Each structure stands twice: as C-alpha cells, then as structure tokens.
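User: Here's a structure from my thesis project, written as structure tokens. My advisor, Dr. K., wants to see whether a designed sequence matches the one we expressed. Can you design one independently, without my sequence as a hint?
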C-alpha cells in the first residue's frame, strides 16, 4: 500500500519527473471536454453516438469523458459527421483559431454592418456640441452630428 500511495503522490507533484506528461494530460482533458461538449451541442442521444463509435453502450462513453477509458483515433473517426464537425471546431477554437460557420450573403452583409457599426461607434463621442470634424488624408471635411 505504501508504494501505491508513494507513486500516486509522485504523479500529483507539481515537478513531475516527466514535464511533458503534464502538457499531455492537459491536452487529453481538453480533448475529452471538446468531445463531451460536441455531443451535447449536437443534440444526438448518447446511445446513438456510442453505437456509431462502436462502443458497447452509453456508459462506456461516460468512461471516455471521465478518463477511465482512453480515447483513441478509432473513437474520433467513428463519430457521426455532425458531432465530428462540432468536435473539430471546438478543438480548433481551443488552439486559438477563430471558426466561422458559412452563411448566406444577406446574413454576411448584416453581420458585417453590425461589426462595422460596433467598431466605429467605440471611437465616437456619445454627445457633441456641434458637427464632428474629421480629417481624411490631409483634407478637412465636416462630419455629421
């Protein structure tokens, strides 16, 4: 029993013998979180996802989430397409990428207008005493109040 406690304590120490192990553990935790969130966000039943992944049942899927069982590439490849798409987006976002869903032209125009208005309105004063003057490339032009 003392060896079990000693080895468990060793794994929990901040200065682990293998510094790369902590980074790997963090990546696995993030992968499990992304998988769980992707399944929840997709609206698919856990039983259906477990069957698509070739798992015995939804309880095994819960073991994957908790880390009791290891997630393999076979599990990821077995995800239903809509779950895999969400999972890939979540993993990309965890790595710092900005993911944008495709939209039609009208929606894109609306999003662009909203973004431009929000961006430009940050620099404008809330109240003015008269017209706002702005200089564009050395030319003075009167703005709109």
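Assistant: Designed independently from the structure alone:
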């Amino acid at each position: 029993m003392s060896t079990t406690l000693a080895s468990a304590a060793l794994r929990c120490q901040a200065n682990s013998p293998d510094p790369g192990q902590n980074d790997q553990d963090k990546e696995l935790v993030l992968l499990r979180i992304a998988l769980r969130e992707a399944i929840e966000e997709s609206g698919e039943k856990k039983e259906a996802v477990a069957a698509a992944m070739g798992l015995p049942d939804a309880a095994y899927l819960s073991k994957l989430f908790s880390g009791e069982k290891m997630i393999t590439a076979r599990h990821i490849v077995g995800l239903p397409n809509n779950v895999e798409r969400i999972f890939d987006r979540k993993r990309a976002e965890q790595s710092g990428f900005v993911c944008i869903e495709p939209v039609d032209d009208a929606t894109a125009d609306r999003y662009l207008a909203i973004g431009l208005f929000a961006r430009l309105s940050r620099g404008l004063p809330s109240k003015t005493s008269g017209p706002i003057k702005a200089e564009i490339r050395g030319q003075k032009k009167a703005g709109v109040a």
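When you compare it with your expressed construct, this may help: The CA atoms of residues 53 and 75 lie 5 Å apart.
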